[in-house]
From TrEMBL:
InterPro entries: NAD(P)-bd_dom_sf (IPR036291), RCK_C (IPR006037), RCK_C_sf (IPR036721), RCK_N (IPR003148), Trk_Ktr_HKT_K-transport (IPR050721). This is TrkA family potassium uptake protein. Residues 134-216 form the RCK C-terminal domain. Residues 1-118 form the RCK N-terminal domain. One of its GO terms (molecular function) is monoatomic cation transmembrane transporter activity. One of its GO terms (biological process) is potassium ion transport. It comes from the Bacteria.
Amino acid sequence: MKSVLIIGLGRLGHHLCVNMSRLGNEVMIVDEDEESMQDLLPYAVMAKVGDCTKEDVLKSLGVGNFDICFVCIGSNFQSSLEITSLLKEMGAKYVVSKANRDIQAKFLLRNGADEVIYPDRDVAERLAVKHSANHVFDYIELTEGYSIFEIPPMKSWIGKSIRQIAIRSTYHVSVLGIKVDGHLNLLPQSDRILEAGDHLMVVGLKKDIDRILANI
């Protein structure tokens, strides 16, 4: 369990609060708009109305006691920048800040952000990859080169085991799991026979996965 501070309760802050709470974390929420936090009160251990660009407001939160501080302000970049800087000055352990553009990310990192996220861009990229290819059920980018794809097996793989296909040595990707009817089997045995309805969760370089997709 981690203690989490979420500043800014727009769409990102709202979903973070709900999901962090459901995963068993203790969440404190802060926003200038009291109405924005009403439906989140069941998920937060504490809620405060205040302007976090003001030092006295941040000091009152005890930011150094939280494992993670999320700055989820998207509409006012200057406020996001000021809050990020103040959090680090006050001893915040780990600060995650939201950016909409690369130039914003550079300034946030220079001002103390430990991590910068681009929620709108990341969702757009994921949807673009998923819906541009006929055989991609889902997609997650891990780093600039490596990704996880949910794909069907190649026709030549059906009826053969993972060992027989030699997926790792031949195609340079690894099978993390196999999803059947929505149920995921993580790290399947090498003697698992692949079937037509399987969804394979494969990880590897995008260029290697693209080579597989070209043959599906």
